Amino acid sequence: MALAGDEPFSPSVLGTREHWDAAYERELQTFQDIGDTGEIWFGEESMVRIIRWLEKHKVPLNSSVLDIGTGNGVLLVELAKSGYMNLTGIDYSPSAIQLSEKVREKEGMSNIKLKVEDFLAPSAELSGFDICIDKGTFDAVSLDPIDAVGKRKLYVGSLCRVLRPGGFFLITSCNWTKEELLNEFREGFEILEELPTPKFCFGGRIGNSVTALVFQRKKVRPSILDKLD
């Protein structure tokens, strides 16, 4: 849970590229040795929660989906198994993309596109997505020891560039509360729904250890001059 101020979290190795490169190098070696795909961030229920929302709202199967910080790519595999056809995963760790490529090959999901990309400096071809999904990447950005505040702002700016107006952003976080995420994404996004997550009880108070929200990118409203044309 974030505290007040510009620096809500203490810097952590979990916010560094070096940590994730090393982590995915280990997971890649483990996959090559025994076929284990590695950790599923926030557990399998987090993937079920996302897919259930997409199905409930009848999101077309040909919608373009971007998995931000795809890691081992398992979420994309599950989306493909559910019928989604236009899937892209990016990660700034080359080892993560190598691992996700091997998982994709094992599952026979050749239609999944995978790329080494830093979301804070996305390439021009990353644009116009109908759906963007984040399970823990914004959390990691928030822990970067070097200018986490600036990088959070870069993240929001990148999201505005890659997600089309009217598109949906599904975020799962263990660091941020609903109110804090509403504040972080107040520029250009509006909240649609809070998804149910496991609750815990401590000291007579009930809370959530994970926050899952669905935002919609605000549609660009025509100016008065546009209306006069």
Automatic annotation (TrEMBL):
It is found in: Cytoplasm; Nucleus. Transmembrane segments: none annotated. Residues 63-193 form the Methyltransferase domain. PANTHER family: EEF1A LYSINE METHYLTRANSFERASE 2, PROTEIN-LYSINE N-METHYLTRANSFERASE METTL10. GO terms for biological process: methylation. GO terms for molecular function: protein-lysine N-methyltransferase activity. It holds the Pfam family Methyltransf_31. It comes from Hirundo rustica rustica. GO terms for cellular component: cytoplasm; nucleus. Signal peptide: none annotated. Gene3D superfamilies: Vaccinia Virus protein VP39. The gene is EEF1AKMT2. Keywords: Cytoplasm, Methyltransferase, Nucleus, S-adenosyl-L-methionine, Transferase. It catalyses: L-lysyl-[protein] + 3 S-adenosyl-L-methionine = N(6),N(6),N(6)-trimethyl-L-lysyl-[protein] + 3 S-adenosyl-L-homocysteine + 3 H(+). Belongs to the class I-like SAM-binding methyltransferase superfamily. EFM4 family. This is EEF1A lysine methyltransferase 2. Its EC number is 2.1.1.-. The keyword Methyltransferase applies. Protein-lysine methyltransferase that selectively catalyzes the trimethylation of EEF1A at 'Lys-318'. It is an enzyme of class 2 (transferase).
